[in-house]
């Protein structure tokens, strides 16, 4: 089920695209992503938030932290899109028509476990008040995992390597 209106519009777009693939020679393929991160990302995503709070003594109220996080590094995502483009440039590209593929991390863990990993990599303590805020309505506790990986794509970066490249820790 869609988590929010934005997710609903993405599903609706797939239905619209299906119409065109059935009435024309258009080939349409979907790549589904869970969470994403990387350097120079200005969105208020978890690693940016933790990076900011780990440099202060401020307390960060968070949920209980039981939700499973599946987050992919931007360079791996770019690689997956390039791989899909190469797949679509082949003579047998119709096999990808109206199919959905996923980009997923090899390392999924709870938000609490991810916080511990962040602390270990950055050598900075996070002052988190676990349970200080409620889960959001329709909180995703387990990420989408029912898809097939982008054909011929392999994740290159471990979560540890990607966090280091994102936060700038060596």
SSE arrangement:
Blueprint: H1 5-23, E1 29-33, E2 35-37, H2 46-54, E3 60-62, E4 68-69, E5 71-73, H3 74-88, E6 99-103, E7 109-110, H4 111-122, E8 128-130, E9 148-149, H5 159-167
Parallel strand pairs: 1-6, 2-5, 3-8, 6-9
Antiparallel strand pairs: 4-7
Helix pairs in contact: 4-5
Summarize the structure.
The chain is built from 5 helices and 9 strands, in the order H-E-E-H-E-E-E-H-E-E-H-E-E-H.
Structure characteristics:
about 170 residues; globular; 3-stranded parallel sheet; 5 helices; alpha/beta; about 40% helix; two-stranded parallel sheet
What does this structure look like?
The chain is of the alpha/beta class. It is 38% helix and 16% strand. The chain has five helices and nine strands; from the N terminus they run αββαβββαββαββα. The protein has helices spanning 5-23, 46-54, 74-88, 111-122, 159-167, and strands spanning 29-33, 35-37, 60-62, 68-69, 71-73, 99-103, 109-110, 128-130, 148-149. Strands 1-6-9 form a three-stranded parallel β-sheet, with helices on one face. A two-stranded parallel ribbon has the order 2-5. Strands 3-8 form a two-stranded parallel sheet. Helix 4 (111-122) packs across helix 5 (159-167). The longest helix is centred in the first third of the chain and has 19 residues, at 5-23. The chain is globular. The protein starts with a helix and ends with a helix.
């Amino acid at each position: 089920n869609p988590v929010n209106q934005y997710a609903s519009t993405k599903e609706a777009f797939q239905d619209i695209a299906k119409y065109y693939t059935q009435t024309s020679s258009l080939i349409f393929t979907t790549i589904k992503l869970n969470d994403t991160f990387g350097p120079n990302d200005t969105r208020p995503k978890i690693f940016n938030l933790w990076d900011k709070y780990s440099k202060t003594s401020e307390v960060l109220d968070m949920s209980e932290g039981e939700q499973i996080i599946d987050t992919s590094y931007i360079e791996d995502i770019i690689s997956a899109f390039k791989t899909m483009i190469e797949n679509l440039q082949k003579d047998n590209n119709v096999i990808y028509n109206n199919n959905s593929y996923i980009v997923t991390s090899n390392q999924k863990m709870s938000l609490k476990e991810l916080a511990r990993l962040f602390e270990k990599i950055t050598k900075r303590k996070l002052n988190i008040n676990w349970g200080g805020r409620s889960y959001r309505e329709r909180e995703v506790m387990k990420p989408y995992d029912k898809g097939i990986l982008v054909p011929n794509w392999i994740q290159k970066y471990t979560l540890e390597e990607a966090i280091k490249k994102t936060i700038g820790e060596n």
